[in-house]
Amino acid sequence: MPLYHQLIATSLGVGFFPYGPGTMGAIFAIIVWLVLAALVSTPYLIAVTLALVVVFTLLGAWSSSVSERYWGEDPSRVVIDEVVGQWIVLLAMPGDFQWWHVLIALALFRFFDIVKPLGVRAMEKLKGGWGIMADDVLAGVYGFIVLHLLRIVL
User: Fold this and answer.
1) Closest Cα partner for 87 from 141, 150, 42, 135?
2) What's the domain count of the chain?
3) Range of the domain at 71
4) Poorest-pLDDT segment among 24-28, 93-97, 149-153
5) I want to staple 128 with a disulfide (CB 3.0 to 4.6 A). Which of 52, 65, 71, 110 is the partner?
């Protein structure tokens, strides 16, 4: 497998973590986002996060398709989908977030990614890398909606 596809699909090798690679991918996304949050103001953070979501959804679909040829259908070491899904949830974070917001964002994404309600599982039926990416994108959208509603209520 070409190295650049491997680096993208596994999120710089995070997917090779032997226990819970999907959760590790989501945590990796949070770490990247927290570094960005420390460097830029909220409007730029939102713009950069949106750009990352778009770019890595496209690159992830491409590299995930390639990875299936080498590692089989929807391999667990492909975690770029979890990274993108987690970034989508993080778009609902306030500029002055607390640590518990981060934990809720992680829990929401992992819940929707694992349980796969409301059409999330159906997204896996898409062919190749699009199926790998689409279910986590939708799980991220659901997590975003719930986190946004929690912010309004709390």
Assistant:
1) 141
2) 1
3) 3-153
4) 93-97
5) 65
